[in-house]
Amino acid sequence: MSNKKRKQQVVFWIIRLMTLGVVGVLCWILGFLIVKGAGAISWEFLTGYPSGGMTEGGILPAIAGTLSLVAGSIAVAFPVGVFSGIYTSEYAPNNKIVRLLRIMTNNLAGIPSIVFGLFGMSLFVNTLGFGDSIIAGSLTLGLLVLPLVIRTTEEALNAVPQTFRQASYALGATKVQTIRRVVLPMAFPNIMTGLILSVGRVSGETAPILFTVAAYFLPRLPRSLSDQVMALPYHLYVLATSGTDIEASRPMAYGTALVLILIVLIINVLAGLIRARFTKRMN
């Protein structure tokens, strides 16, 4: 075996070991939560309301609150992010202003989530008068993931070969028709990646909802967009750290963490199925 092939095999084995290490860590975390939290999960736990200082009862209000915040934030971020990505990729000239906008978008994605929480509290809760509500929390979380949606949309559109656009123009299609019927359908599977990543981040954020929507103890379901809600990340924080009998609530904390991961997994699987369906249709 030549020295070149030997070095190549060593590199490949290092990459394999690193990949197996990452998968192993993920399996370890999931297995830990299953072992610790599976015993707490029951029908009453999933459909009941918290009681006994949140050491008893269920987490239905927290599940409903998390789902409402995920839906609200995606309803805000996805359309705005996709249209912004279309503009910067297909319409905006490649000048200094557009390059500056891209840099600012990348920087916005790196801002700590607690800063978004403070901004949301100042703008949506106080200035606009939404108060602690689903709409304030959804708008704040939508802003949080907006840079991610914009960048993934832009990258997905840029990945579509330019020859497809040129062929569409040659057949007499306008730019809008080309984007709508050629570019977007081909880019949509990759755009869905941004949606999946956004759902994963939104569902696990605690700091932004702490300032804008999260309630410490609210044993009822939300009735309108102006209501406060409980949410699984904040509920998990409360169970694990403050305000309750920590030892008594620890099984519920593990159960809540497991439910949160399962919800994110289910949403990601559904989004992945939609992505696979569009990919299959394009092929």
Describe this structure in words.
The chain is an all-alpha fold and 283 residues long. The protein has a single domain, classed as MetI-like fold, CATH 1.10.3720. The protein contains 11 helices and 2 strands. The chain has a two-stranded antiparallel ribbon with strand order 1-2. Strand 1 and strand 2 form a beta hairpin. Helix 3 runs antiparallel to helix 8, helix 5 crosses helix 6 and helix 7 packs antiparallel against helix 8. It is globular. The two termini are 41 Å apart. The model has no long low-confidence stretch (mean pLDDT 86).
Feature tags:
283 residues, mainly alpha, MetI-like fold, globular
Span of the ends, CA to CA: 41 Å
State the helix count.
Answer: 11
Identify low-pLDDT runs: none
CATH class: Mainly Alpha
Instruction: Look up the CATH topology.
Output: MetI-like fold
Topology:
Layout: H1 3-37, H2 43-47, E1 50-51, E2 56-57, H3 60-91, H4 96-109, H5 113-127, H6 134-158, H7 162-170, H8 175-204, H9 207-212, H10 232-241, H11 246-282
Antiparallel strand pairs: 1-2
Helix pairs in contact: 1-11, 3-6, 3-8, 4-6, 5-6, 6-8, 7-8, 8-11, 10-11
